[in-house]
Design a protein that fits this description.
15 helices; D-Maltodextrin-Binding Protein, domain 2; about 300 residues; alpha/beta; 10 strands; five-stranded mixed sheet
C-alpha cells in the first residue's frame, strides 16, 4: 500500500532538484510514498504554512522563517529535514570585481528582486554580523524579478542579486560574478521541510520515510556526474537549455548547497535564528529542540547506513 503525502513547495527552481528527483526516480516510491507536490504555495510562496494549517497539505518546503514566525501566534509547525544547506544566490556586477568585500557596494545601487522576504533578511543580517555599512548602500527592493531583470538589461543598477540559471544567462550577456552568497555569507539551512505535529506523530513514520527518500536523492545527486543529474532533471525545465541547467547545477554543488544528510545543523540554524530575531520576525531564538524534530533525520541516516 502506498501512502499519499501532499506537499506544498516553493516555486520551481533548480535548487530543489533533489526533491524533484526523489519523485521522478522513485526514491519516495521506495519508501512506500506517493508524493503530490501540486499544492500551490501562492505569490512569493506566502501560503506555505497556511496550506498546512488549513489541512490542504501535509508537508511544506521552504525557508525556516515562516514556521518560526508562526510558532507562538498561529501554529506550531515542526521543522524535520533540510534540502538546501546554503543560500545559492549570486551577486552580479557590471564590471569585474577582484577580492570582493562589502565595501564594493558602498555608494552603489544593489537590486534585489521581490522573490522572498528571506533574501533581504538574510543578506542584511549577514552584513550586519561583520559590521558592513548597509546604510551606505542603495538597495532597490520589492520589484518583481521580471521587472528587475528588464531594468538590469537596460542598464539600471550596479549590482544584481540573482539565482541560477538566470545568473548564468546574464553572465553570458556580459555581466560578471562579483561574489556568491555561499562564499560571502557562509552555511545556512536555507530550504527545509516542515509539517504539523499531527503528521509528525503518525504511527506509520511518514515523516521519517519522507526524509529518508530525500536523503537518498541528495546522495544520488552528489554521487553522479553533473551532466547525468542535468539530464535527469531536464524535463522539469523544458524551456531551459541543458547546458544552462548543467552549469547551474555545477555551481550549486560546488557551493556545498546540497549535503548527504537531511539533518538540520544546529550551529547554522541558531545563527539564522539570530538573524531572524534581529530582523524582528521572532522575539528571540528558540531552543533548537523546541522547533526542530530530529527523529525523521535520524531515521533517514539509519536508512542511508543500511543502503551504503
Amino acid at each position: 500500500m502506498t501512502d499519499l503525502i501532499r506537499v506544498t513547495p516553493s516555486g520551481l527552481s533548480v535548487i530543489y532538484t533533489p526533491h524533484y528527483l526523489a519523485e521522478d526516480m522513485g526514491f519516495f516510491a521506495a519508501q512506500g510514498l506517493k508524493v503530490d507536490s501540486s499544492v500551490y504555495a501562492g505569490p512569493g510562496s506566502s501560503w506555505l504554512s497556511d496550506n498546512l494549517t488549513s489541512g490542504k497539505a501535509d508537508v511544506a518546503m521552504g525557508g525556516i522563517w515562516i514556521p518560526l514566525a508562526y510558532r507562538e501566534i498561529v501554529a506550531e509547525l515542526p521543522i524535520f529535514a533540510m534540502i538546501n544547506a546554503r543560500n545559492p544566490q549570486i551577486i552580479l556586477s557590471r564590471e569585474p570585481v577582484e577580492n570582493f568585500t562589502w565595501e564594493h557596494l558602498y555608494g552603489k545601487r544593489v537590486v534585489l528582486p521581490m522573490e522572498s522576504t528571506s533574501q533581504w533578511m538574510f543578506l542584511r543580517g549577514a552584513m550586519l554580523e561583520v559590521g558592513a555599512g548597509i546604510d551606505r548602500i542603495r538597495f532597490i527592493r520589492d520589484l518583481h524579478v521580471e521587472t528587475t531583470t528588464t531594468m538590469w538589461r537596460a542598464g539600471f543598477g550596479d549590482f544584481y542579486l540573482t539565482t541560477p540559471p538566470l545568473s548564468h544567462k546574464l553572465v553570458d550577456e556580459g555581466a560578471f560574478v562579483a561574489t556568491t552568497i555561499p562564499e560571502c555569507c557562509g552555511p545556512v539551512p536555507w530550504s527545509v521541510y516542515y509539517t504539523t505535529p499531527q503528521f509528525l506523530a503518525r504511527p506509520d513514520n511518514a515523516a521519517g520515510r519522507y526524509a529518508a527518500a530525500v536523503e537518498q536523492s541528495l546522495r544520488w545527486v552528489l554521487a553522479q556526474p553533473v551532466e547525468e543529474v542535468a539530464k535527469a532533471v531536464g524535463p522539469r525545465f523544458p524551456d531551459t537549455p541543458p547546458e544552462l541547467i548543467t552549469r547551474s547545477l555545477r555551481g550549486i554543488i560546488d557551493a556545498g548547497t546540497w549535503q548527504p544528510s537531511v539533518a538540520i545543523p544546529r550551529g547554522s540554524f541558531d545563527r539564522y535564528q539570530g538573524i531572524i530575531a534581529e530582523f524582528g520576525l521572532i522575539n528571540e531564538p528558540y531552543a533548537f529542540d523546541m522547533v526542530v524534530a530530529a527523529a525523521p533525520a535520524e531515521y533517514a541516516a539509519s536508512v542511508s547506513r543500511g543502503v551504503s
